[in-house]
Target: Beta-phosphoglucomutase
Amino acid sequence: MLGLPAHVTACLFDLDGVLTQTARVHNAAWTETFDAFLQRRAAATGEPYRPFDPGPDYNRYVDGKPRADGVRSFLASRGIVLPEGSPDDPPDADTVHGVGNRKNAVLLKRIHTDGVEVYPGSVTYLRAAADAGLRRAVVSASANCRDVVAAAGLESLLQARVDGVVAREQGLRGKPHPDTFLAGAKLLGVDPAQAAVFEDALAGVAAGRAGGFGYVVGVDRVGQADELRAHGADVVVTDLADLVDRRPDA
Ligand SMILES: O=P(O)(O)OC[C@H]1O[C@@H](O)[C@H](O)[C@@H](O)[C@@H]1O
Model:
């Protein structure tokens, strides 16, 4: 049913890049933030300025991960270690949380100006899943998940939410660890083997694989189908609408 194996009774959807077109907004906000940081650092150290690459740098080090993990992970790839600081650091602090807060200010400004767009094929799939009696949760690293879901008008199609705020409260590790997806399955009252994970991020499909979920759907928005498969996707589609009439082995 809906391109899923028969044992699947629940769907765990990532948000940014799967349900809403906000992965590209996050990516743009990270690019702006890291480029300003790297430029200042180059001027201070005399080292050459090498900008953040919204392709590989975003997909490998930032996409799908909790905010602070994204900061640490990308900067580590450049050999940079910042003090942790604390979550209420001001956005101009050169700490992991300061850089994260800077990016969040840029992100919120962009979302405020441009709004949130859904992927129409994903809404079609969500509706079809609801009609078919499949349980549905959103599982996102983003602390802005609740607001983005509301702005996209998707609340009524989702029955549970595990996001960056819930993860922090409950001490859940972020993707590529499976903790948040496992929490989503639990909220829906199913075993991981009965749940399908829908993910566009490499860290996200890896989390689906690590958690022993019943099926992992990779959603390829940026031309990385092979990497999605290599990180754990059972199937890769470019639009969830493609799955509506598909058998799982098709
Ligand atoms: O900074 P937020 O809104 O809590 O989001 C955390 C992460 O959420 C993920 O969904 C995005 O793929 C990442 O780009 C983002 O960094």
User: Anything to note?
Assistant: Residues 65 and 170 are 16 Å apart (CA to CA). The beta strands are 10-13, 135-139, 160-162, 195-199, 215-219, 235-237. The pocket of 6-O-phosphono-beta-D-glucopyranose is lined by residues 16, 23, 26, 62-64, 66-67, 70, 104, 140-144, 164, 201 (CB under 6 Å). The domain at 10-21+117-243 is CATH 3.40.50.1000 (Rossmann fold).
